[in-house]
Amino acid sequence: MTALLDSIDIHVTSRRVLDERLNEAVKTLQELAMLTGDHGILVVRNRPGHYTAALSDQVPFGMTHEVVR
Q: Rounded CA gap, 23 and 41, in Å?
């Protein structure tokens, strides 16, 4: 089972804003991941314009994985 911690929900209507918000979320989560050194980042596209970025124990530390649902 995937454990998701410290998640950030992102809701956007344009690609430019999406890129900015995803970059901000990943940067924030990278800083949190550095505190423990045992979680990577999982970015999930839940539906168009709706994303979740979160720390995940199923993603190796130092990695970011993307999933489309």
A: 12
Residue 57 in contact with residue 18, Cβ under 8 Å? no
Classify residue 36 by burial, with Cβ atoms within 10 Å: 0-12, 13-18, 19+: exposed
Per-residue pLDDT of the chain (69 residues; tens, 9 = 90+): 345 558 999 999 999 999 999 999 999 999 999 998 999 999 999 999 999 999 999 999 999 999 998
Query: What range defines the domain where residue 31 resides?
Result: 4-68
Q: Is the dihedral of CA 5, 15, 45, 40 positive or negative?
A: negative
pTM of the model: 0.87
Report the number of distinct structural domains present in the chain. 1
